[in-house]
Amino acid sequence: MKSLKVLQHHLADANNQLAVLENQSEHQHASFIGKLLGLNLFPLQASGVDIFQINVGKMCNQVCKHCHVDAGPDRKEIMTRETMQLCLPILANSNIKIVDLTGGAPELNPDFRWFVEEIKKLGKHIIVRCNLTIILANKRFYDLPEFFHKHQIEVVSSLPSFTQDRTDRQRGDGVFEDSIKALQMLNNVGYGHDGSGLILNLVYNPAGAFLPPSQQALEKEYKTELAKKFNIVFNNLFAITNMPISRYLDYLLQTGNYDKYMEKLVSAFNPSAIKNVMCRNTISVSWDGFLYDCDFNQMLDLKVAPQTSQHLSNFDLSLLNNRNIVLKQHCYGCTAGAGSSCGGEVAS
Amino acid sequence: MANHYYNAEDLGKFGSIGEYQKEMADKFFSYYGEVFKDGALTAKEKSLIALAVSHAVQCPYCIDAYSSDAYEKGFSEAQMMEAVHVASAIKGGAVLVHGVQMMNKVKEISM
Ligand code: SF4
Ligand code: SF4
After folding, report:
1. ipTM, 2 decimals?
2. How far apart are CA B111 and CA B109, in angstroms?
3. Domain B15-110, CATH 1.20.1290.10 — does that match?
4. Do A217 and B42 touch (CB under 8 A)?
5. What separation, in Å, do the N-terminal and C-terminal C-alpha atoms of chain B show?
6. Nearest of A218, A213, A176 to residue A201 by alpha carbon
7. Whole-structure pTM value
8. Cβ-defined contact of A210 to B72 (cutoff 8 Å)
9. Is B68's Cβ below 8 Å from some Cβ in A?
10. CA dist., res. B54 & res. B77, Å (int)
11. Residues ≥6 apart with Cβ < 8 Å to A239
């Protein structure tokens, strides 16, 4: 499977994705901004910047069908060490507590380990969104569990099901088997075990055109099944809603599910999820150093609102701290049901 | 008057039955909600039972709703089809076991 970009698919262009999402004449779904206006919640302001989510590149060893990054082995966009170096003083001179490294497979960036070590020197907590299979993809990654351990990194990994069938249908043939092996390797160095301090969180996202079921019930089931079948332990399960962008948007359109899915998101709109959407305390950085409210806005090329602080080179925390968030129809994905963020449900 | 008896969109209008009898509808929906919560059986187990019963009562609305719900809750295609077979076996069995009644009657009146 190839990325939309390499296939020269029209949805590889963020403007074409927005054209579908915002097209009110063809797809009539209540406006997200209108909903917020009705609740007196527009404009939605950031509450600060606690999390710096850095997308270090779109290259990935997998080509998942739902990927909102349109990542894959054929994507060459990779953050350079020079761009990473622009992040470091920003982190050093701020109260940002958490650095969340994502991609693609972030470990494929040749400067990944250097970057982790530099961030760690600044005393920040690091999260790595590890797709698991990267650990087995090549000998040079076999020691990633030890590397993560050494730097007390929090590992967040996708596993859309505790069965092979559903996992492989979404993430590719053989992914389930390798993911299980990788989870066992992480467990072997202490990850996921109570009291080890080494956090291993899993992410569930639906393998199809539907919303996630209850996070609590799923977590319980995952814990029982993974322990019983594979002797695997982990800390928390985050249930994340698929965003109607990029490859998942393509899937929805191709299968005739787009309008039904949007309707599901709209009718599951939960006002209490809004105050905790992740953009309120996050800044998302792209491989080339531009700044966004979240990883989804990044993929739709919707930069942060303050025009004089849209890149690492002119980063202005005072402007970003209480910026107005850029909201579009895809934001319904964050407020459906119990809400959804990189950390799972958000509604209290 | 619609020119067909079933319309997929009517499922979404189920709640509107309260327009004609609010009190009973409210009681029904609150009871329904209670039944499908986690209890001695999990909400997931109840979903699969509902799928089988939907087939037994042959309600297209329920089949639509619980095919989605059971799949969303993580049942596989094979598990869902086995549940439908359970419904079928019980329905088939219910027909066939009456064969004994037929036999009894025939034995009673035959020479
Ligand atoms: S979802 Fe993650 S693992 Fe899958 S292709 Fe996208 S970046 Fe890679
Ligand atoms: S997609 Fe979600 S996190 Fe991003 S701006 Fe919209 S509401 Fe915020």
Report:
1. 0.80
2. 7
3. yes
4. yes
5. 56
6. A218
7. 0.92
8. yes
9. yes
10. 16
11. A204, A205, A212, A213, A214, A215, A218, A338, A340, A344, A345
Pick from A152, A169, A139: nearest CA to A64: A169
- Distance between CA atoms of residues A154 and A139, nearest Å: 22
Question: Which residue carries 């009644």 as its tokens?
Answer: B101
Region for residue A310 given its phi and psi (left: phi exceeds 0; alpha: psi -120 to 50; beta: otherwise): alpha
For residue A298, the one-letter residue type is: Q
Residue A233 in contact with residue A187, Cβ under 8 Å? yes
Q: HSE on the CB side for A30, CA within 13 Å?
A: 14
- Residues with a CB atom less than 6 Å from ligand 1: A 60, 62-64, 67, 69, 71, 103-105, 131
In Å, how far are A10, A19, A247, A251, A276 from A13, measured between CA atoms? 6, 10, 11, 16, 29
CA-angle at A109, arms to A104 and A113, nearest 5°: 120
> Using one digit for the tens of pLDDT, what is the confidence trace for A277-328?
999 999 999 999 999 999 999 999 999 999 999 999 999 999 999 999 999 9
Can you give the pLDDT at residue B3? 79
- Taking the C-alpha atoms of residue A36 and residue A253, their distance in angstroms, rounded to an integer, is 26
Residues of A with CB under 8 A from a CB of B: 161, 163, 165-166, 206, 208, 210-214, 217-218, 221
Instruction: Give me the residue spans of the domains in chain B.
Output: 15-110
